[in-house]
Design brief:
The chain has nine helices and no strands. The chain has 190 residues and is mostly helical. It has two domains: 57 residues, Arc Repressor Mutant, subunit A; 132 residues, Tetracycline Repressor, domain 2, CATH 1.10.357. The longest helix is centred in the first third of the chain and has 29 residues. The termini are far apart.
């Protein structure tokens, strides 16, 4: 087959997969996790059930793939935020706030319970923890944050504290949580 033909087929498959992922997410959002069926997904995408099964074996596998894409997008967003901020202290603040806002937006506990397991989540958590630890270590070197606690411990404290943003009532509350977390990073008074 000519290269152009293969590229066209690959692009079509990617488009169908994206349509399946987006349709499934929309159905789960509208109807809840337990009531979505493969037939509904196929109908919403405009493909046959047999075609859908060529891509995914069940609703859970669709949601796991959708989740992997979202995790990757979140990590890319955090890297962009980090790279756009100014000095070490500003980068810490910007990334912690962006992470807290991502946590705030993630509120579906049934969906989270299903999807927040597996190696892809563990890998993303390690990546995020390393990113935060490196930012904190850089800020420690500049004297912007406390250095009486290791950057690794501080990263763990920050990530656990800011995960609480998922239960807060507003973005204003999330920003206050970020402020409290940042205050805990300040060098101790002498």
């Amino acid at each position: 087959m000519p290269k152009l033909w293969n590229e066209t087929i690959d692009a079509h498959r990617r488009d169908v997969q994206v349509a399946i992922l987006e349709a499934t997410a929309a159905l789960v959002s509208a109807q809840g996790l337990q009531s979505v069926t493969m037939s509904q997904i196929a109908e919403k995408v405009g493909i046959g059930r047999a075609t859908l099964y060529k891509y995914f074996s069940d609703v859970e596998s669709i949601l796991v793939t959708w989740h992997k894409r979202h995790i990757s997008a979140h990590l890319e967003h955090l890297a962009e935020v980090r790279d756009q901020a100014g000095n070490a202290s500003e980068r810490v603040e910007a990334v912690l706030e962006a992470f807290a806002l991502i946590s705030f937006e993630r509120r579906d506990t049934n969906l989270a319970a299903l999807l927040h397991r597996g190696e892809h989540v563990a890998h993303a958590e390690r990546h995020l923890s390393n990113m935060i630890r490196e930012l904190l270590a850089e800020a420690q070197k500049s004297g912007a944050i406390r250095n009486d606690v290791s950057a690794g411990e501080l990263a763990a404290y920050c990530l656990h504290a800011l995960a609480a943003a998922s239960s807060l009532p507003s973005k204003a509350a999330v920003r206050r949580l970020v402020g409290v977390t940042l205050a805990g990073l300040q060098p101790p008074a002498k």
